[in-house]
Design goal:
This protein is mainly beta and 324 residues long. It has a single domain, classed as monomeric porin ompg (Porin, Beta Barrel). It has 1 helix and 17 strands. The N and C termini lie far apart (93 Å).
């Protein structure tokens, strides 16, 4: 009886392990949103930023970082983020108070749990995605650095049903601890080193007993600003950027009879690329473009990320005209 039970468990594990990778998913935070100027918060007033992100991958890697054979199709999604800041003039603990929220719309599942051998079948649906709210975000402006820390949560406003193929959202709440740093390497602040971090802690997934493991994301960038006009009214900023994202704790719950979710291998992703910003300081307008190519991933797809958009600030109070 014990031999039969052991054989049955072993068989389940063999079958289960074959699909463990396909059950994996990415973190709630989508890498590629930061890069240059990670520590800078907007000036007092109202800021609107629009960011479009496209991720595309035709390769699925196993837990050792090797491509899984027999995989076809492309896993891809688009997400459009509408970010709203309100920054009052007063300070909190000597810092600028810069809370914000992002209302997102997506075409595809941003945190897809991959199933099967055709990546195209994991695209998901379209519509309102999960909503990012950062009610606490404090930014300090120092002589040679800008630094911010914050707390955010992700509300599962995107459509999600366990086992459905048209999901847009993650199906669970997330808590995020964030930080951003921009260090000015040169005295004129033209050359910068940047670092953004996000630690995410997840709730239980709707309709299941699974609690996805915690994740840590790091985005970095080295940038150089070049004046396009002598009066610095037009600036071009170019830089090398990249991201690293890791699952740092095991999944809770189970994915099947006798198969704990903790058996799913930890995922990670690493990418490098470039960013360009066209900045108009008098108009408080920044247009940006980013490209990042993943050079190594474990237990998840390996692809590339393209990001583009703009940020505009309505300064309150309006800055005084410069004296001649």
């Amino acid at each position: 009886m014990k031999i039969k039970s052991a054989t049955r468990i072993l068989a389940c594990l063999i079958v289960g392990c074959a699909s463990l990778l396909q059950s994996q998913q990415k973190g709630q935070y989508v890498p590629g949103q930061q890069g240059l100027n990670a520590g800078v918060v907007p000036d007092p007033g109202v800021t609107y930023a629009n960011m479009t992100i496209n991720y595309s991958a035709s390769q699925l890697n196993n837990a050792n970082g090797n491509s899984v054979s027999g995989i076809s199709g492309t896993y891809s999604f688009w997400v459009n983020e509408n970010v709203f800041y309100y920054v009052p003039k007063f300070k909190v603990l000597g810092a600028t108070f810069a809370p914000y929220a992002a209302v997102n719309f997506a075409n595809g599942s941003l945190v897809a749990g991959l199933v099967g051998t055709n990546l195209s079948a994991n695209g998901g649906g379209e519509g309102l995605a999960d909503t990012w709210v950062e009610p606490v975000n404090l930014g300090w402006h120092l002589k040679r650095a800008d630094f911010n820390v914050g707390y955010a949560f992700i509300a599962p406003t995107g459509r999600y049903t366990a086992g459905a193929s048209n999901n847009v959202g993650s199906g669970y709440w997330g808590n995020h601890i964030t930080s951003g740093t921009t260090f000015y390497i040169t005295k004129n602040k033209g050359t910068t080193a940047n670092l953004f971090t996000d630690w995410e802690i997840h709730g239980q997934k709707t309709g299941t007993d699974i609690t996805p493991g915690q994740a840590f994301t790091m985005e970095w960038g080295l940038g150089q600003t070049l004046p396009l006009k002598k009066d610095f009214s037009r600036l071009l900023q170019l830089g090398l950027i990249g991201y690293d994202q890791w699952q740092v704790t095991s999944n809770g719950g189970s994915i099947g009879p006798g198969i704990p979710a903790s058996a799913i291998p930890y995922y990670s992703g690493h990418a490098i690329g470039f960013q360009s910003n066209f900045i108009l300081p008098p108009k408080a307008l920044n247009l940006f473009f980013k490209f990042e190519d993943e050079y190594r991933t474990l237990a998840r797809p390996e692809g590339r990320t393209i990001v583009f958009g703009f940020a505009w600030t309505l300064r309150i109070p309006k800055p005084a005209a410069p004296k001649s």
